[in-house]
Specification:
- Two copies of one chain form a homodimer.
- Chain A is of the alpha/beta class and 395 residues long.
- Chain A is 38% helix and 15% strand.
- Chain A has helices spanning 15-29, 49-62, 78-89, 106-112, 132-140, 183-195, 235-239, 262-273, 279-287, 291-317, 341-352, 378-393, and strands at 36-37, 100-103, 122-127, 143-148, 167-171, 199-203, 229-234, 247-250, 256-257, 260-261, 322-324, 330-334, 354-355, 357-358, 369-373.
- In chain A, the strands form four sheets. A seven-stranded mixed beta sheet of chain A has the order 2-8-7-6-5-3-4, with helices on both faces. A four-stranded antiparallel beta sheet of chain A has the order 11-12-15-14. The first copy, chain A, has a two-stranded parallel ribbon with strand order 1-13.
- Chain A is globular, with a radius of gyration of 21 Å.
- Chain A starts with 14 loop residues before the first helix and ends with a helix.
- At the A-B interface, helix 2, helix 4, helix 5, helix 8 and helix 9 of A face helix 2, helix 4, helix 5, helix 8 and helix 9 of B.
Chain lengths: 395, 395
Amino acid sequence: MKLNKNFANLQESYLFSKIAKKVNSFTAENPNKKIIRLGIGDVTLPLVPVVIAAMQEAVAEMGDAKTFKGYGPEQGYSFLKENIQKYYKSRNINIVEREIFVSDGTKSDLGNILDLFDKENIALIPDPVYPVYVDTNRMAGRKIIFANATQENTFLPLPDRKVKADIIYLCSPNNPTGATYSKEQLKEWVEYALANHAIILYDAAYECFIQGKEIPRSIYEIEGAKECAIELCSFSKIAGFTGTRCAYIIVPEALIFDGMSCNKMWLRRQSTKSNGVSYIVQKGAAAVFTAAGEKQVQQNIAYYMENAKILANCMDALDIWYTGGQHSPYIWLKCPKFKDSWKFFDYLLEKANIVGTPGDGFGKNGKGYFRLTAFGDRENILEAVARLKKLVHNI
Amino acid sequence: MKLNKNFANLQESYLFSKIAKKVNSFTAENPNKKIIRLGIGDVTLPLVPVVIAAMQEAVAEMGDAKTFKGYGPEQGYSFLKENIQKYYKSRNINIVEREIFVSDGTKSDLGNILDLFDKENIALIPDPVYPVYVDTNRMAGRKIIFANATQENTFLPLPDRKVKADIIYLCSPNNPTGATYSKEQLKEWVEYALANHAIILYDAAYECFIQGKEIPRSIYEIEGAKECAIELCSFSKIAGFTGTRCAYIIVPEALIFDGMSCNKMWLRRQSTKSNGVSYIVQKGAAAVFTAAGEKQVQQNIAYYMENAKILANCMDALDIWYTGGQHSPYIWLKCPKFKDSWKFFDYLLEKANIVGTPGDGFGKNGKGYFRLTAFGDRENILEAVARLKKLVHNI
């Protein structure tokens, strides 16, 4: 029996264990110093009341033979899919229920969707990037080309028509940079994909943080996108479901390559390799779309975005270059004082007792940059800002 | 962009839609006839009280900032893994926590574990079989050889030493036949796998139905199995989690091929393509292992097994050949009167208003055989038996 040798090509991921080691070491030597963590990509506010109530009700149903639910439809219950459909409709995008697939997470969908694509395709992936895009393709043995996101293009790479790619990864608002594409920029990508008979995997996991109506919240706001793009979104950020696990992936029926339908293939893949998402969790997710649910999750989103604004204002005050913070809980800043992100990490930890994430962890273009996140406690955010101002003024 | 052409080699799965069509048709023409469904592979009893209580508590925790859980460890929380470890220990099997991976289902694990294996491996799959084993390998473009399960070998195929295989599927107690391997028979398979440097995927999803101590409940009861077998098990049948979604897969650290560790690869695969199982669901699963939980789930298992016994006794009384029913909720019978399973299906539906599953749906060796399941309501089981006796006596 031969194992998949592509796994030997994966790099060890040391980013978070390296961070943990440094933080543990510092804490051991400085037990009285209060560390503020601005590196986490996890939510901190609890699930909202209407979601809790819906799940309590669903749990009770599961304890009663009359309302007990066994195997559900692998693609998700209609009561949830129709709400997702309405969510798109409210933004003038028409998706049919058959194009919506409920899952336990965008991370799962990102990994599993690759089952549909031949190994010989070339993946075009931004750098810096959420490492999952890279690793999932390396596991399949696929060739990867990187699209450089740099300060010069404000971390929003555009298509290079000299480059041929088959699977294009776009994430907007971006993790880790928080940068967001404009409608015109996405139009260029859709045109490029159509011209190359390529597919776009559009990660919209952070769309809920977008303010106003200018910045697109879905790739399907661009004409032609249904013929070339799959969109992934999640309840993790909009409703704090990082530990509850629910997401959705849109696979349009218009997505056809060599006469084969991606939608039919995904339906088959999920019917074969999944038994769907917990009924209880789907009931919780559906509650997000009620009037009360929308109000409650928007309060949490506003809380995080106010944190982001406070961090962004701090960057402005300190004249530090950054992206993000406006339509994203992530701030991606150019390290002051140091060219090396890890040196800045150490400096920030030792002098200000703040933990962030060095940009190196996201790719070569992350060197010299740093990610701070706005998911934490308001008081901690304010204190962190005070410490940053003191620190940087003394540089 | 090229799609995965292996999907074109999948057969359309018409089994359950064909059954549904016939049943709907019959119901439309015979609205007053009470149909008894003995075809379902789904549980019918609700989740037990102690699981419900645990999940209510977990839901409440998720609504409170002090106890809220965000991202959990992808392999599952220790509070659940240590319980699974103890479950094995109680049967004298030593597994370390690192070898246990919690997932949302055996169906997912069966599909996803194949990421670890090269495409060029030969899969050895029983016939008749749970169709997922076949389809997941066809999607990967893998060559499949079938191990014939027939009445001659009481649907318990043993290794053919002339046949070379790399990935061996065993399911015991079996779906669809309910047949169970003895320790001696499993020993032959382990020896075969070790001699062939092959891997066994041991589907133990129905182990909870085994009565007594003779029949093995884990492949690891066989010496040498840790060097050649991965075991999959689920909360679906033991605790009725078909709609709640929780399972586990054991990947021993001793499982090494060409110097590569399957355990390390699976850890990497799941860390990259999954964010773990809902905290709420894991809390429910852990409750199964409490004293109260064990008592309550055993009551449900006993209920199903009493149903199975009633069905099995009926087969005995009618002198119909069958396997299963003793350590499994499935009865796999040789169709009386008809050589064609679908003709027997129609006959059973029209004359006795009972729905079962024709063996054809599980492979060529299923022709002429039929599956009945014991998950239904006791009264319906008793009534079904009365109707069967009347029907078959009149043949």
